[in-house]
């Protein structure tokens, strides 16, 4: 019932401390790992409760509940510290440390338990079972301290002090065994202390005869605290992820989206330049049959560069990979087209709904129009649409290109022996071995390979750069009240990617110079090379193999790029549409509630039977009765006043008095109301009695049922003066069995008016 974020955070931290204490209690204290984990979690729990004690009053600004009150959490923090100290006592005992140190650790743990017991002794904040456990733990740790201190006294030959401390320890554990045995079992500790006390007394009685000092004369045991409350440091978990990190104002969100589009365009443009330059270099080298030409000076073995290309093609799956990718391409393109169409359809439907509601509610519909919000997504969708169209158009070209190189790619997939047999041999060009031209070409080709490797690293670096512009846009919005997205984005992109674009331009320029030098050196190499048919045929085959490798690499890369499924774009569209629908439903609910609260009910005129003319006579009525008006819920309706009794003439009195008793039964159904008086007739009101009194209809409203005509019980009449002066005889329905009807006295009296019955409207 308390709407406070500070209260919620306090409760969560309390649960963290409680869970840490449970984890510590479940540890196995028979090994070092369990002891360390228990001590760590107990100290964390103590820190959590201590943090609540220090901050709960300021977090709530009101009196906290009992469970998180400073007294309660302060006691819990002390209990956690006491348990952590006890864990260190167990660790020291297990490691057989010096008895003096163990005694100090136990004495400190006893103090922690004692302080915790004192804090909650006279309060009902903790369960009653906690008090005896705290008291028992205090006695047990004090007994352990006295026991280990007695061992130290024995080592120092203070036998009287040894007996005194053992007697005190025996008294302590005896108290625990007698009072708190149902909570903690101390039988082993009792036996150990009693054995030591019996042996010490026996030795002292027969050998040492040392005086046993009183308890108050014993030196106090020192204390050693090895624990402290772990401070609460946010975040508590190393795996913490801020769920609200991406919740930013709409302007910032739109600016970040546009910035991401600018960044993607820049990165794609730079990467496209590098790939185009690499393809150009590969094409030039393939046309010159490099580096195979300078490696093939022997003329009868497969050049190492061709073997490397063959190994790379085989590792990537060879022609089977390309065949499968080409086979899957149409289906995946169709799948991407369906995803794109579905994503855009979601945007269109939500935008149409938003426009309809904006037209209906006009200025009341206060939220960002969908057409403005979806601009970045529609631009991204248009980009995907262009990619799809290009892929469909290039499908035929890809297949034609693959078919032209398929046989050569298949040759690259063969083993080295078959590959060597397929390449024509030539006479060794012995004059070229060790020549300066070959060495120059090798150096230039090595430099070109280095440029390609640097370019690949540059491409990876460009893709991995990630900079969050949210903080920049938030700062700009806070300072200026608006965001100049273009200026901020351009400056940041220049700052982040400026060095990369400069390196790319340097790489392109360096490649251009290297290719020029390679072409010049290759011309000299061609002049020096022995010219014969076998040599030319072999060089042509090697050149085709190099071209086939380049085409294979490019085909695989393009096909894999084209077969990517665009689920990420679909998820973005569905997420934003779902968020907009939720926002729309909430806004519609608020609008409906605000419209319902507006006053719009008109005032209801009085019914005709409650209005009279100036002369006191009722206006003319129609032949049908006037129905009762509906009463608005929430207003308490008032029933109409009963009309005065009608004046009965002598004629009617005699007529009614002479009626036979058999006809004076209970009233039948309500007669039709009297016809309206003829206009212009001025008969006096008291001349003739109406056949039926014209009372108002019974009102209908909640809690007041409509009039239900029932025969009047005998002896009930609001107009009677006595029990037996009724104008009508009682109904035979209500007389007792075997009793004759009462005679009807024929004396004038007030007629009981029969009210007309109107059904509820």
Automatic annotation (TrEMBL):
Region of interest (Disordered), residue spans: 595-702, 735-761
Ranges where the BRO1 domain occurs: 1-281
Keywords on record: Acetylation, Apoptosis, Cell cycle, Cell division, Cell junction, Coiled coil, Cytoplasm, Cytoskeleton, Methylation, Phosphoprotein, Protein transport, Secreted, Tight junction, Transport
Any Gene Ontology biological process: protein transport
GO cellular component assignments: bicellular tight junction; centrosome; cytosol; endosome; extracellular region; Flemming body; melanosome
Keyword RNA-binding applies: no
Localization per record: Cell junction, Tight junction; Cytoplasm, Cytoskeleton, Microtubule organizing center, Centrosome; Cytoplasm, Cytosol; Melanosome
Coiled-coil annotated spans: 441-468, 501-531
Compositional bias of kind Low complexity: 648-669, 679-695, 747-761
This protein's record includes keyword DNA-binding: no
Protein name, as recorded: Programmed cell death 6-interacting protein
Organism: Pelecanus crispus
Gene3D superfamilies from the UniProt entry: alix/aip1 in complex with the ypdl late domain (1.20.120.560), alix/aip1 like domains (1.20.140.50)
Residue spans of biased composition, Pro residues class: 637-647
Primary location recorded for the protein, binned into one broad class: other
Stored InterPro entries: ALIX_V_dom, BRO1_dom, BRO1_sf
């Amino acid at each position: 019932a308390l709407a406070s974020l500070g209260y919620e955070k306090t409760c969560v931290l309390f649960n963290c401390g409680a869970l840490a204490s449970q984890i510590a209690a479940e540890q196995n204290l028979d090994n070092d790992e369990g002891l360390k984990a228990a001590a760590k979690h107990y100290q964390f729990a103590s820190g959590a409760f201590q943090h609540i004690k220090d901050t709960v009053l300021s977090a709530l600004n009101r009196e906290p509940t009992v469970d998180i009150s400073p007294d309660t959490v302060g006691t819990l923090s002390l209990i956690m510290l006491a348990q952590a100290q006890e864990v260190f006592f167990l660790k020291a005992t297990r490691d057989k440390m010096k008895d003096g140190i163990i005694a100090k650790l136990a004495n400190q743990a006893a103090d922690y338990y004692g302080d915790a017991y004192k804090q909650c002794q006279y309060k009902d904040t903790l369960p009653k079972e906690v008090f005896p456990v705290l008291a028992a733990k205090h006695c047990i740790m004090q007994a352990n301290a006295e026991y280990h201190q007695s061992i130290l006294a024995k080592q120092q030959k203070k036998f009287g002090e040894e007996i005194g401390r053992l007697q005190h320890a025996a008294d302590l554990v005896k108290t625990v065994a007698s009072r708190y045995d149902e909570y903690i079992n101390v039988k082993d500790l009792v036996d150990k202390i009693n054995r030591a006390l019996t042996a010490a007394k026996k030795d002292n009685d027969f050998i040492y005869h040392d005086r046993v000092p009183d308890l108050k004369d014993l030196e106090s045991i020192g204390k050693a605290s090895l624990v402290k409350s772990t401070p609460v440091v946010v975040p508590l978990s190393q795996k913490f992820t801020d769920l609200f990190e991406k919740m930013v104002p709409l302007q910032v969100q739109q600016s970040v989206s546009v910035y991401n589009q600018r960044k993607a365009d820049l990165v794609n443009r730079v990467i496209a330049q590098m790939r185009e330059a690499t393809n150009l270099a590969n094409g030039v080298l393939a046309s010159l049959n490099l580096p195979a030409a300078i490696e093939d000076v022997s003329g009868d073995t497969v050049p190492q560069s061709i073997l490397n290309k063959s190994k790379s093609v085989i590792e990537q799956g060879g022609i089977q990979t390309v065949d499968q990718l080409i086979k899957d391409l149409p289906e995946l393109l169709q799948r991407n087209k369906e995803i794109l169409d579905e994503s855009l359809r979601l945007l269109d439907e939500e935008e149409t709904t938003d426009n309809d509601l904006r037209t209906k509610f006009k200025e009341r519909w206060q939220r960002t129009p969908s057409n403005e919000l979806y601009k970045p997504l529609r631009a991204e969708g248009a980009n995907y649409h262009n990619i799809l169209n290009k892929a469909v158009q290039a499908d035929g070209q890809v297949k034609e290109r693959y078919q032209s190189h398929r046989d050569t790619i298949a040759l690259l997939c063969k083993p080295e022996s078959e590959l060597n047999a397929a390449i024509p041999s030539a006479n060794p060009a012995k004059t070229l071995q060790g020549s300066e031209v070959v060495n120059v070409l090798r150096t230039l080709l090595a430099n070109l390979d280095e440029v390609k490797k640097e370019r690949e690293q540059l491409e990876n670096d460009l893709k991995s750069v990630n900079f969050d512009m949210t903080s920049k846009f938030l700062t700009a919005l806070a300072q200026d009240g608006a965001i100049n997205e273009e200026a901020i984005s351009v400056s940041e992109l220049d700052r982040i990617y400026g060095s990369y674009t400069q390196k790319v331009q340097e790489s392109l320029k360096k490649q251009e110079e290297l290719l020029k030098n390679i072409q010049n050196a290759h011309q000299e190499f061609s002049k020096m090379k022995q010219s014969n048919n076998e040599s030319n045929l072999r060089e042509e085959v090697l050149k085709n193999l190099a071209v086939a490798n380049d085409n294979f690499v490019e085909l695989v890369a393009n096909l894999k790029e084209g077969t990517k499924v665009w689920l990420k774009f679909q998820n973005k569209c569905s997420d934003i549409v779902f968020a907009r629908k939720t926002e729309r439903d909430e806004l519609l609910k608020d609008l409906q509630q605000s419209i319902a609260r507006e006053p719009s009910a008109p005032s209801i005129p009085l019914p005709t039977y409650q209005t009279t003319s100036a002369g006191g006579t009722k206006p003319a009525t129609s032949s049908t009765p006037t129905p009762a008006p509906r009463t608005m819920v929430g207003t308490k309706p008032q029933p109409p006043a009963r009309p005065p009794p009608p004046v009965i003439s002598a004629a009617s009195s005699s007529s009614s008095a002479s009626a036979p008793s058999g006809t004076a039964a209970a009233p039948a159904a309500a007669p039709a109301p009297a016809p309206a008086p003829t206009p212009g007739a001025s008969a006096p009101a008291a001349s003739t009695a109406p056949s039926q009194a014209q009372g108002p209809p019974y009102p209908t409203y909640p809690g007041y049922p409509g009039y239900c005509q029932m025969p009047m019980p005998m002896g009930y009449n609001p107009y009677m003066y006595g029990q037996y002066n009724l104008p009508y005889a009682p109904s035979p329905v209500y007389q007792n069995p075997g009793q004759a009807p009462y005679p009807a006295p024929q004396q004038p009296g007030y007629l009981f008016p029969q009210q007309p019955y109107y059904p509820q409207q």
